[in-house]
Amino acid sequence: MLTAARNEMLTRVGPGTPMGELLRRYWQPVAGASEFDANPIKTIRLLGEDLVLYKDLRGRYGLVDRHCPHRRADLSYGWVEENGIRCSYHGWLVDQTGRCLEQPYEDTASPKPSKAGCDAKAYPVKECAGLLFAYLGPLPAPQLPVWEPFTWANGFREIVLADIPCNWFQCQENSIDPVHFEWMHDNWGSRLRGGDANAAPKHLKLKFEEFEHGFIYKRVREGQSEQDRYWTVGRVALWPNGFYLGSHFEWRVPVDDENTLSVAWFFMRVPKDREPYMQERVPTWVSPIKDENGRWISSHVINQDIAAWAGQGRIADRTKENLRSSDIGITMMRNRFFQEIDAVAAGKEPAGIIRSANAAQCIALPNMAREFNTEGIALADFDKDPILRQRLKEFRHHYGQPPAVRRAFVEAMGIAG
Ligand code: FES
Ligand SMILES: [Fe+2]
After folding, report:
1. Of the residues 82, 268, 290, 365, which has the fewest C-beta atoms closer than 10 A?
2. Which atom of ligand 1 lies at the shortest distance from residue 91's CA?
3. CB 256 within 8 A of CB 47
């Protein structure tokens, strides 16, 4: 249980709030690069700030204030040019550094060399593994961590976005919550498919550890032992707002205090006989979260999670909760956030910031599926693993995979559609 004041501290993300200041120290994934193939301008709301993300005609990304520096028209209704984005109201042109380059009427009627004072707020953007990351903190920006899976070859990757109407922190608490797999995904999932109730293997033992990139949770369930990788390797709650499960990442990106963008990046190694496989573009798609009756879609794994997160309320009231031993990891995580908030307030660099380019190049994380992802297996062997067999059949993580993405996946894997 937390006091209302501590809950506020964990959940408020706008400029100047303690958590907002902490989260601004980290690169945040905000979009898929392939989204900009069809439309070079996307509105972004991030940490309570309204922005536009655009790709100029030279292929450079810019993330600038959504409101034009002239009289605050919406730049998302502008257009991109060689050197930036132009406002459709009076034609001012702003580049990716926020510099105002042109003011057409002034430049004609009363030209002045300097446009000082007319710059827009702008933030750096970087592309990695098909994702676009933004950094809203003080400069110089730290290195963008290149997690090892971003460097893997011979894989089919896809990015799935979902707009979730609740605060990011309750989503991130799910990254360190092993017991929910048994109930939410196994028992509830089984009921939804008309199967046995409450028959999933029970959790017998949990362990939570901290490491330099977050937390690891380990578990033993009925039928497993301490030799199992669920115990010897475990899964990663990636600091500060990610979740890493061996073949995919999920980030809970704060839009504002009451909304979160779920950004998930998936990797599926192609069968050995399909190598070498080179993916031209990483597809990005948006997963719907509600059905036609306004209820949460519950057929897919992350959709089930979303039903839990959003069901906790726009901002979960942590003054009314009852934490028990299954929640030890959650308490560890909250305490770490409180400590890092204090560190930033004291002018210190918070945990997990990487300043050395070398150190950021290929960061290994605990991974239960390392051999499969880095060495690959033959197609015939997919059948021997129930998870891989299922993964070939359908995309179970998010509802609504577009047929074109399924077709590309089937083609990459060399399987029948
Ligand atoms: S408001 Fe954008 S150019 Fe005038
Ligand atoms: Fe889950």
Report:
1. 82
2. 3
3. yes
